[in-house]
Amino acid sequence: MEITVNEITTTSHFDLSPRSLDEAMKFAEVLSDSSIVPKDFMGKPGNVLVAIQWGMELGLKPMQAMQNIAVINGRPALWGDAVIALVRASALCEYVHETLSEDGKTAICQVKRRGEAEQVRTFSMDDAKQAGLSGKQGPWSQYPKRMLQMRARAFALRDVFPDVLKG
Questions:
Q1: Residue 54 CB: number of other CB atoms within 10 A?
Q2: What is the pLDDT of residues 65-83, one digit of tens each?
Q3: What torsion, rounded to 10 degrees, do the Cα atoms 91, 15, 57, 65 define?
Q4: CA-angle at 63, arms to 30 and 153, nearest 5°
Q5: How far apart are alpha carbons 30 and 84 in whole angstroms?
Q6: What's the Rg (C-alpha) of the chain?
Q7: What phi-psi label fits residue 8: left (phi over 0), alpha (psi between -120 and 50 degrees) or beta?
Q8: 95-118 pLDDT per residue, tens
Q9: DSSP secondary structure code for residue 120 in this structure
Q10: Cβ distance 113 to 93 under 8 Å?
Q11: CA 162, CA 147: separation in Å to the nearest integer?
């Protein structure tokens, strides 16, 4: 007796990634009805579908997209650690170094793209004040150093790796 093995029997993980528009629309409806998706996606299957598609274009699985894409001023935007994860996973990235000035008021992000000179971006408390961010309720008053780091990082990675981040 001969036993044949196909892809289905050798796959060791369960994957809900949609494979057609119909599957994607049904999946988006299920997710939008869930209480564990970000509020911008609750009850909005169209937003879920857009986030899943954009995430797939970036190399993210649907659930990664749901947790790492935010709706900002009506547009999908990558946020948080997804940005640095995509850049570091790229062969184009040599390094990303993040530091804080001695007084703790400026974050510095040094980025090196393969074959190019190092780029440095900073974000300071003065920048935060000018942008109307400092003193706001929420993370800017609770975790100012972390927010400075995230801003410096975002500017550096978006400037140096727009192709990796798809825009």
A1: 17
A2: 999 999 888 888 998 899 9
A3: -100
A4: 140
A5: 29
A6: 20
A7: alpha
A8: 999 999 999 999 999 999 999 999
A9: E
A10: yes
A11: 21
